[in-house]
Design brief:
DNA-binding; 2 domains; Beta-Lactamase; Arc Repressor Mutant, subunit A; homodimer
DNA sequence: CCCACTGTTCCACAATGTGGAACAGATGCC
DNA sequence: GGCATCTGTTCCACATTGTGGAACAGTGGG
């Protein structure tokens, strides 16, 4: 086998543990390696946190480091679990639906949504993609994206989704500048008549925007003009909390 | 540093990539290793799928293998994303809420739930724990658990949650035997008056039960006696699909 | 008490990983 | 166009590291 033998062997041990916890001799059998080799690799992997040894047992299992690295490898997957309780808190506070989405090309792909259980509520877009320029999440994601990503998004004409959709590139650029400055975005019946929304960005520890949290509701009741600022602050704060949680899940 | 040096270095490279993709020289800087050492480790990690090289670029990023290992390290986290669309399909079909839970000691911890949007619907238990013996998920998880786990669960007396809760250990053991045989469980107003549910098990590729999917509804309309068998089959089929998806997400 | 396993540790040895150097290619500047 | 400065890749002499068989202590079952 090519490459660094010890690294190959270490991953062989990790793969053997993905079918379930095991002891040194069992792993030696599964990987066809001598027990002393397995013991030494396990000791190193335990130090790294990639493997953990059960208490009251000499059984080994996969450890937190792999979850942390995986979270970094695929922000969208882990972020659903991390953000879920925060979305729930937001829903409890504001009594409107909250969700989370990521940028995919020129659209927002919705990863998750928590419903407020209101009798009149909006359709759940989880698993679907909406043009970025007509939703608050999309504006947030574009505003905090790299210049290259923004240039790519602005390269083609914008489609209107309804009467109030903003499609003029100059107006959108101005808008993105103010979103970047404010740290949040509101859209008022720009994706569809009767739907308003507000969103804020979630950053990874390196400082790049990776997702956006939004709250939306029917225009006739959302937002209550007296609560608009409080709603905005709550969404911004929730997104910041999720950013921190993500950072926490990456630190050893 | 103790342990196998090459393995330590390989994980140092992986950790440096968790803050964002980078090239050989950048990683050498981040890890304080010579470029040739980093190049050799990267080559091995690419072969393993732990790192992938971007097309049209010599930038390296974390790869699928870490996601696969992480899924094995923490079945509960990944399973929420995988099962979500399947729960949605079940809800669309049956028009009742569906959820997923895992065994935690003698209780079921609910990871996720999809609501049917019915005007009369049950409370969402996501994030909460219920005694295993009073819910269909709990009976399923215990029925397919190891003898040790079952013995541990049966070691202490069972608490009734309402008038129809089954708490006699002998009756519960008999029940678990038939659940294991049938591949599903029904509970009729055993957790609370007015709530019925049905559950089926999700297995990991090694064949161990790791979660259960359930559908529940108000007893006055769920289940419709004419549809009970169809409902059961739908739940069992959905759980089997999720099991297969999990297997697929672990295979390279 | 004995046997059969387990995980851990030791250490002689040689195979592997090291890392500086050289090289080819790309990019930017003058 | 030429040069400088980076990049990633490859080579290879060398010595350090990882190897793996053996020995040992501990545990559980008969």
């Amino acid at each position: 086998m090519s490459g660094v033998q010890s690294v190959n062997r270490a991953f062989s041990v990790l793969r053997s543990l993905s079918t379930g916890p095991a002891g040194v001799s069992e792993i030696a059998e599964r990987t066809d390696l001598p027990k002393s080799t397995v013991a030494r690799l396990l000791s190193t992997l335990v130090d790294l946190g990639a493997v953990e040894q059960s208490e009251n047992s000499s059984s080994y299992g996969l450890g937190e480091t792999l979850i942390e690295l995986s979270a970094a490898a695929s922000p969208g997957r882990n972020i659903v679990s991390i953000s879920r309780p925060h979305l729930q808190d937001l829903v409890d506070l504001l009594e409107e639906d909250a969700g989370i989405g990521v940028l995919e090309g020129r659209g927002v792909y919705y990863l998750d949504q928590v419903n407020a259980g209101q009798e009149v509520q909006l359709r759940d877009w989880t698993g679907e993609t909406v043009d970025a320029h007509v939703v608050s999440s999309g504006l947030v994601l574009l505003a905090f994206s790299s210049d290259e990503e923004q240039a790519a998004a602005l390269a083609d004409p914008f489609e209107p989704w309804c009467e109030r959709s903003v499609t003029d590139p100059v107006a959108i650029i101005r808008r993105l500048e103010s979103v970047r400055r404010d740290g949040f975005a509101w859209t008022m019946e720009e994706m569809a008549e009767g739907i308003n929304s507000v969103a804020a960005p979630i950053f990874n520890p390196a400082g790049s925007v990776i997702a956006a949290i939004h709250v939306h509701g029917p225009a006739y009741r959302f937002p209550d003009p007296d609560r608009r600022d409080a709603i905005t602050r709550a969404v911004v704060r929730t997104a910041a909390r999720v950013s921190k949680r993500l950072a926490g899940s990456l630190q050893p």
